[in-house]
Hints:
Layout: H1 3-15, H2 19-32, H3 37-44, H4 62-73, H5 77-87, H6 90-99, H7 113-123, H8 131-144, H9 148-159, H10 168-179, H11 184-197, H12 200-217, E1 232-234, H13 237-244, E2 251-256, E3 260-267, E4 270-274, H14 286-295, E5 300-309, H15 320-328, H16 333-339, E6 342-352, E7 355-356, H17 362-371, E8 380-382, E9 385-388, H18 419-430, E10 435-440, E11 454-457, E12 464-473, E13 482-490, E14 497-503, H19 509-520, E15 523-527, E16 530-533, E17 538-542, E18 545-548, E19 556-559, E20 562-566, H20 578-587
Parallel strand pairs: 1-11, 6-8
Antiparallel strand pairs: 2-9, 2-10, 3-4, 3-5, 5-6, 6-7, 10-11, 12-13, 12-16, 12-17, 13-14, 15-16, 17-20, 18-19
Helix pairs in contact: 2-10, 3-12, 4-6, 4-8, 5-6, 6-9, 7-8, 10-11, 10-12, 11-12
Residues 230-231, 254, 256-257, 261, 276, 306, 347, 383, 437, 456, 465, 574 line the site of adenosine-5'-triphosphate (ATP).
Amino acid sequence: xxxxxxxxxxxxxxxxxxxxxxxxxxxxxxxxxxxxxxxxxxxxxxxxxxxxxxxxxxxxxxxxxxxxxxxxxxxxxxxxxxxxxxxxxxxxxxxxxxxxxxxxxxxxxxxxxxxxxxxxxxxxxxxxxxxxxxxxxxxxxxxxxxxxxxxxxxxxxxxxxxxxxxxxxxxxxxxxxxxxxxxxxxxxxxxxxxxxxxxxxxxxxxxxxxxxxxxxxxxxxxxxxxxxxxxxxxxxxxxxxxxxxxxxxxxxxxxxxxxxxxxxxxxxxxxxxxxxxxxxxxxxxxxxxxxxxxxxxxxxxxxxxxxxxxxxxxxxxxxxxxxxxxxxxxxxxxxxxxxxxxxxxxxxxxxxxxxxxxxxxxxxxxxxxxxxxxxxxxxxxxxxxxxxxxxxxxxxxxxxxxxxxxxxxxxxxxxxxxxxxxxxxxxxxxxxxxxxxxxxxxxxxxxxxxxxxxxxxxxxxxxxxxxxxxxxxxxxxxxxxxxxxxxxxxxxxxxxxxxxxxxxxxxxxxxxxxxxxxxxxxxxxxxxxxxxxxxxxxxxxxxxxxxxxxxxxxxxxxxxxxxxxxxxxxxxxxxxxxxxxxxxxxxx
Length: 588
Ligand code: ATP
């Protein structure tokens, strides 16, 4: 397939803002592709070159790309930079550069999809001295053979921002339309297959070759992470207990640990650890890996847990911010591991001995988990828990009142939580944990879903997780930093991010430096001292109050918002919803 044909698809996708039209364009492209083209197309329509859980990266920054464009076209870097600043897109600058180029290669080779794909994937393999120059050469080589439109999309792919507005949902719907009947059930079947494989290439091929049955055969594979099941927030302990399970179902209460969620894949001595965003953090946690090797007796399994850091002298828990240093660390990992040792608190088993357990009840899965842990262990624990039997046991009866001291949440005296349950919650908080997780023991595992099978309770007024939408350079001493940030939440009806306020305080210089560096890589538009950014950076925000306000798209504004921390473990899809902002506003 010629690269120009793919560029034509990109341009058509870019030209419409209608989700239905985008789906139709993809459906047509997927249907027309042969068996070799399909997997490539599925990846490249979203500009993906690697599976999200691999640590491979192209390693080409904006400035290297700029040099590659200059090399391919003979246009000066200053001129390229100027177009970049004007349009906010280096892809546009590349297209302009090719149009105005002062030099040509002698032989133009027509770009093919396979050729571009393979050349770009090669880049991740270059290491050591001279690797930068080699990367520039490869990108420049592709650009020399490109026409302006092709150059635009080669550069956008290199930089990881294709800007054609294709999300997971569009690809899912197009696969369901192209290879199944496009019905709601077909869409669900595609979605389910994606949740267990995390790979639309496989899903598209299975749908094409085997239809609905082919999709049903896709299952968990070791070392290919599964999307994790997410929790809903309960505003009170009693409300959470009522929502998580029907009276005839059992409930498990577990401490909510403040650490890094870990999906652990094990085959013999091979162990890999993935975060909830499916990043591979195995290298960063050699101590956790050693504990798993030693204390998990199963040969082949996928377990889930929370990795929690503690102070080696006092054995007190360390907050997530401290532990997150271990995720970012590339060097001196052993030293870091002795500074902040960890315990893994396990709470689920998704796969055991060749069999996926996703459709088993939590009760069964936890039975499997208990069965694979060796008796003697310190750095690996079952998460602290307590079981509530179904309703005819006294524990699920309404409390007889008088027991609540009102210190937790706003449970009244008629809450569904009994004394022992409240005491368990208080013990969790007293020992420095975040709160409790409430789990329905009769429920299956739903990858990637925020279903109500798992609820989390933390004391109110809870902070919000919001995404940065725009930013402004600060004034005075901090004028080198993007310190004024607009924050958005998610409108669940439209999927759009809507703004809820502006933040200017709460960060240290170091945090501000890190934030600025992250945001600079995401700039889409510049105007004076203001920039628009891709909504990628998620912050945990505290505030004093929520007010109604016509100033922001959400209709609400946070009063006195304060930066609490960067949520490196969350993406834009995880930010709090407008419904939650509204509920908190109503509850205050
Ligand atoms: P939060 O901001 O409250 O940490 P989140 O948005 O990161 O939540 P949720 O799925 O909403 O993620 O909350 C559940 C998270 O709590 C899990 O992702 C996991 O990392 C963590 N956690 C801690 N203890 C447990 C536990 N016992 N069972 C399940 N998850 C737990």
